[in-house]
Amino acid sequence: MTATKDPVARNEWVACGWLGQIEPGASHDTMILGQPIRVYRDESDDYRVVEIDANAAEGRELPVQTRYTCIFTTLGEPTRPLPEIAEFDEPDRVVVGCGSIGVSTSPYRLVENFLDMAHFSFIHVDTLGATDKTEVLAYRTEHRKDVDEIWAVDCSYYQPAASKAANGGQMTRYQYRVMSPFSVMLYKNISEDSDRNDAICVFIQPVTETRCLAYAPMAIVDNLNTPADIADFQQSIFLEDRMILENQRPTLLPLDPTYELPTRADASSIAFRRWLKAMNISFGIHEKQAA
């Protein structure tokens, strides 16, 4: 596998690790977009990222940012900043980094799965969905051109246990936010305060076109559970998703609208694919074969 030459993918910030993954004074070898890299953590908790070759020899040093419990880098010159997520700065929230989970699929399949409410009642039974309540109510999608993000708003779904802190079933209100081809999040109202939403993110490390690591930092309104309990709940949800994601075919994402026929519930996926097509990204995209 060689590093992608796709400038669209190269110019995005992508996750390449989580804070605390590497001991002070140590390093970790990994890969983004087909490019091997080495991530260093020094004794002062500062991070460095360098490219390495097939013989582990070091080359170019890459930009680094550390936010939302993750380490981010880029192979190119980003055209968009890391997103601002104000909930992570609120002092009374529980901020949890859930480590990483490996998934053998396209990064965009991960984004679409996160956006998809229709699978809740079939994959996340008795937590995010109930087998007797399967309807996805109508919602709206928006391309917010000032920040170049895709949003799905006015979403709601019945959930028996919307979070670790939930006390019984409820109609949960959602807003979804696609911040880049490799990052997505949701705002989810589950607390007694109707003005406060949990913020749950997925930052994707595209190791190759068909292999990813997913990081799921959260800023949660929860005074009852420990960070470990919250992380366990989130990881159990994600592991249920992994089984489905790794069986989707084709593994790469087709952008031709005739390849996979959508339903009304797929409005956010339709908007996401149109957005990817408009930016002319090629990394991780399935090209339709000529007849």
Q: Give the total of beta strands.
A: 18
Q: How many DSSP helices? A: 5
Would you tell me the structural class of the helices and strands? alpha+beta
State the helicity in percent bands: 10-25%
Strand content: 25-35%
Largest sheet: 9 strands, antiparallel
Could you explain the architecture of this structure?
The protein is α+β, with helices and mostly antiparallel strands. Helix content is 17%, strand content 35%. It has five helices and 18 strands. Strands 8, 9, 10, 11, 12, 13, 14, 15 and 16 form a nine-stranded antiparallel β-sheet that branches. It is globular and about 55 Å long.
Give the topology, please.
Layout: H1 7-10, E1 14-18, E2 27-32, E3 35-41, E4 47-52, E5 58-62, E6 64-67, E7 70-73, E8 94-96, E9 100-103, H2 107-115, H3 120-123, E10 140-144, E11 149-159, E12 170-180, E13 183-189, E14 198-208, E15 211-215, E16 218-220, H4 227-245, E17 253-254, H5 267-279, E18 285-286
Parallel strand pairs: 17-18
Antiparallel strand pairs: 1-7, 2-3, 3-4, 4-5, 6-7, 8-16, 9-15, 10-11, 11-12, 12-13, 13-14, 14-15, 14-16
